[in-house]
Write a structure and sequence with these properties.
The structure holds two protein chains of two kinds. By secondary structure, chain A is mostly helical. Chain A folds into two domains: 93 residues, no CATH class; 49 residues, no CATH class. Chain A has nine helices and two strands, in the order ααααββααααα. In chain A, a hairpin with a 5-residue loop joins strand 1 and strand 2. In chain A, helix 4 packs antiparallel against helix 5, helix 7 crosses helix 8 and helix 7 packs antiparallel against helix 9. Chain B is of the alpha+beta class. Chain B folds into two domains: 29 residues; 84 residues, Immunoglobulin-like (Sandwich), CATH 2.60.40. The longest helix of chain B has 25 residues. The radius of gyration of chain B is 19 Å and the shape is elongated. The termini of chain B are far apart. The chains are: A mainly alpha, B alpha+beta. Chains A and B meet through strand 2, helix 5, helix 6, helix 7 and helix 8 of A and strand 1, strand 2, strand 3, strand 4 and strand 5 of B.
């Protein structure tokens, strides 16, 4: 009888311990970008950035609004500038012709619009788990049959340092470029 | 005669300066070495793409400059931990990257580093 009670107490204690451990895990931020979002909020320089970052998430609509404000600012300052959607989950930018005023105007236009929002949003889209980015690209290259099974992040770093001259793939292959631009899409 | 000679020398000087300016304008800046990238960041390139890695910086941005339809044109990747941009129109002028470095008065971009 005593032995049975003792086992019961042990079982209850084990369940309680598991619950406590579970709650500790719950207290950890689930979003790997939470720290970046907090830092960005502390560095915000515009009401727009603060409004976007206060809830510690960035929606697609908020990202697109940041890009729209940035591009509008560049254009208002006489730069031939546009955002282009290449189907990668984020925008790239084209400037025609290359402006000698870019370096003066660009930081002013990024400040308060995309400077803090874009890096986090792009990271969330291209690397949602915040894994080692080179590891992600290496795995993408293997998955697409462009690199051998044993190809690693270290191999990629070495190949990148040599501008892919000795890589087992053609650095200009569109599939390789897609792996670099967004390794999380197939 | 002396005046003509001076005028001739001036004309040659102007021509020389024009050629020099044109050459400098059309030539991409000198390549950087890996050591030139701040905070342990890095970059790689092909004839149609640039990719940069932020290392310990706050973010990075890749750039590729091309000459198309008689005009220089720049393509910019996103500001990101890894920024990559591709373009294959016209001819290549140069590949560059820059890095956002944390500073006392807020993060600041490095200059564009051609490599």
């Amino acid at each position: 009888m005593v032995e049975r009670r003792s086992r019961c107490v042990e079982a209850i204690a084990a369940v309680l311990l598991a619950l406590i451990a579970g709650c500790a895990a719950c207290a950890q931020p689930a979003d790997p970008y939470d720290g970046d979002l907090r830092r960005a909020l502390s560095q915000a320089t515009s009401d727009f950035e603060r409004q976007v970052l206060t809830d510690r998430r960035i929606t697609r609509a908020e990202y697109e609004e940041a890009v729209r404000r940035y591009v509008a600012c560049m254009q208002a300052n006489g730069i031939g500038f546009e955002a282009v959607d290449q189907g990668l989950g984020y925008y790239v930018y084209v400037e025609t012709p290359t402006s000698p005023d870019h370096n003066t105007i660009n930081p002013r236009c990024q400040r308060g619009t995309t400077l803090l929002i874009e890096p986090i949003y792009t990271g969330m889209v291209t690397n949602p788990a915040k894994a080692d980015p080179r590891d992600l690209v290496a795995k993408c290259l293997i998955l697409k049959g462009l690199a051998p099974e044993e190809y690693s992040a270290g191999d990629l770093a070495a190949d990148a340092a040599a501008d892919y001259r000795n890589a087992p793939f053609d650095g200009d292959d569109p599939r390789v470029r897609t792996c670099h631009q967004n390794p999380s899409i197939n | 005669m002396i005046t003509k000679s001076v005028r001739g020398n001036r004309a040659l000087g102007i021509m020389g300066a024009t050629i020099l300016v044109t050459a400098v304008t059309l030539t991409a800046p000198a390549p950087a070495s890996a050591a030139d990238f701040p905070c342990g960041g890095g970059a790689s390139k092909t004839s149609t793409s640039t990719t940069s890695w932020m290392g310990g910086c706050q973010s990075t941005q890749a750039r590729i400059d091309r000459y198309y339809a008689g005009l220089p044109r720049s393509y910019y990747g996103p500001q990101a931990a890894v920024s990559s941009v591709t373009a294959s129109d016209g001819t290549l002028i140069g590949n560059a990257a820059r890095f956002l470095v944390a500073g006392g008065s807020g993060p600041q971009w490095s200059s564009w580093i051609y490599f």
